[in-house]
Amino acid sequence: MAQSNIKVAVQKFGNFLSSMVMPNISAFIAWGLITALFIPTGIFPNESLAKLVDPMVTYLLPLLIGYTGGKLVHDQRGGVVGAIVTMGVIVGADIPMFLGAMIMGPLGGYVIKKFDQLIEGKVKAGFEMLVNNFSAGILGGFFAILAFLAIGPAVTTFTGWLVTGVDWLLATGLLPLTSIIIEPAKVLFLNNAINHGVLSPIGLEQAKTTGKSILFLLEANPGPGIGVLLAFSIFGKGTAKRSAPGAAIIQFFGGIHEIYFPYILMRPMLFFAVILGGMSGIFTLMLLGGGLASPASPGSIIAIMAVTPPQGSAYLANIAGVLVAGIVSFVLSSFILKTGKQKDEDIEEAARKMQEMKGKKSSVSNVFAANTGTMPEKVSKIIFACDAGMGSSAMGASLLRKKVKEAGMNIAVTNTAISNLPSDAQIVITQEELTPRAQKQVPNAYHISVDNFLSSPEYDQLINRLKNPETAELQEIVEDAEAVVPSGDPHTDDALLREENIFLNQEFATKEEAIRFAGNVLVKAGYVKESYIDAMIARDEMTSTYMGNDVAIPHGTEEAKKDVLNSGFTVLQVPNGVDFDGQKVRLIFGIAGKDGTHLEILSGIAVTCSDMANIEKLVEAKSAREIMDILNDK
């Protein structure tokens, strides 16, 4: 458990570092292109346009990083203060302050966030703007002076040590050994942290002096990855072999290195292939004098060529570095695959393992997803499915049902537990983590995965597909569709949600604490037995009960339905939010459902919470009655 927590903490820290740089990569590329084109040794030397180079690298790029870092911590106000204090570290140093911006930007955002929390609810009406503007200005100015006097010189010294260390590695020929760390770290999803958090700031300092830096290619080189994928294309087996050619195109030309990680996870021996491939590529770059003028992101061969300095020798060196890395990786990968005893590669399982290691949704995992089935020509029923069939699926079904009705289509939208999916199901919608289970239950259905039940774009995409001329002759739905929510006012049963079960201004350290609080409320209200609380915790561990739009709906598992005495709800207002697996939740609806009697009010809650304006009203409500009125749409 401790090891897992350390891994998650490292990944979150690495993700935070890269999140300051990644949104601004286009600005780095713009600077690199202007540098390559217009400096005296560029393709089209131009003394006037070359004047853009120094201000961009000195002021624009660090300020963008500082602003982004502050905004990550405390939204717009954090971004503004982050930029102010970053200016102090810029002026307080005589080198580009990328590392300084990565320190001061988040620090500025943190300072103003803590100040805002300190004065929350204490400012008199009419003075909010005055306090907001002057607090940001005073704190920003103070920390800008601190950065100018202390942080800037300190970061300058530290950066000097790093550059000296890199120069020493180059001089002694030891730089290729960095692949021993870089290549495994990529598969552990620390690639962006290493590339943009460490290598890019040092590389930019080198590039400002020499016009290029080899550091930009240590992690971005697509050679090791393309070697693995080409080996699978020829010597792989099963779905891995079939999917490898497409993955190779995405990796090499699209620059999405993440796509080859599952292949390595299937055969851990392949770590040696990418490590030796990376080392060979770096050695070649050192030998021929390769390097880039600015970071290449994504790590595509196209991006690499675009930011290669405009000299023939630089192009030759960089292409050779990629080719050598690819060839070495391919040869070793082929040997490993040909001599291995594994008969078939389960790329889907490896992709799921990769996503678990990443700790969040993978942008390329859908490439390996099993066949989702064929869209039926005539659709009469859409089924939402979740583990228990009474919480997230009911909310999703109510929202889609509303969209179907607005589109004028005659399609039944129902919800159920995955274990109860009928064999004749046509379209099944589930949370991403549950889709494999649903596919096994009804393999002939058309499956759709969503990650946000309250505002998923998949809903509108599905509606658009269903409205196609090819689906114009839809079957008439049966009037007694089992799980359709009855028409009429869905909010009339006060026994389901009572004022005494609504709690305002709550604070929770963890999601488990919040879920247990909600469970205890349900127990005290007579809705459930005490054993239901542990079932709520277990259900959230299976699949997060975060629904999107700052809303979570913790409820019990399928097996815990026997512990429900009566249907009922509790509402917890958490203005400062509580973390649900990386998602901020400000409204918690604890649910106990018996015999479907809770579905009507849950449907109304889903529709209400699909609008962020209503979410803000609920979070800002000052009384339980006010929350009741908003939910009842009075």
Sequence-ordered SSE layout with sheet pairings:
Blueprint lengths: L1 H20 L3 H14 L14 H39 L6 H22 L8 H45 L6 H9 L3 H20 L12 H13 L2 H17 L6 H6 L3 H19 L12 H6 L5 H28 L7 H12 L22 E6 L5 H15 L5 E6 L9 E5 L3 H7 L4 E5 L6 H10 L35 E2 L7 H14 L6 H12 L3 E3 L2 E2 L15 E13 L2 E10 L6 H11 L2 H9 L3 H8 L3
Parallel strand pairs: 1-2, 1-3, 3-4, 5-8, 7-9
Antiparallel strand pairs: 6-7, 8-9
Helix pairs in contact: 1-3, 1-7, 2-3, 3-4, 3-5, 4-5, 6-11, 8-9, 8-11, 8-13, 11-13, 15-20, 18-19
How would you sum up this structure, described in words?
Its main location: membrane. Its EC number is 2.7.1.197. One of its GO terms (cellular component) is plasma membrane. Residues 380-474 form the PTS EIIB type-2 domain. GO terms for molecular function: kinase activity; protein-N(PI)-phosphohistidine-mannitol phosphotransferase system transmembrane transporter activity; protein-phosphocysteine-sugar phosphotransferase activity. This protein is an alpha/beta fold and 634 residues long. The chain is 56% helix and 8% strand. It contains 22 helices and nine strands. The protein has helices at residues 2-21, 25-38, 53-91, 98-119, 128-172, 179-187, 191-210, 223-235, 238-254, 261-266, 270-288, 301-306, 312-339, 347-358, 392-406, 435-441, 457-466, 511-524, 531-542, 599-609, 612-620, 624-631, and strands spanning 381-386, 412-417, 427-431, 446-450, 502-503, 546-548, 551-552, 568-580, 583-592. The strands form two sheets. A five-stranded mixed sheet has the order 5-8-9-7-6. Strand 3, helix 16 (435-441) and strand 4 form a beta-alpha-beta unit. Helix 1 packs parallel to helix 7 (191-210), helix 6 crosses helix 11 (270-288) and helix 11 (270-288) runs antiparallel to helix 13 (312-339). It is globular.
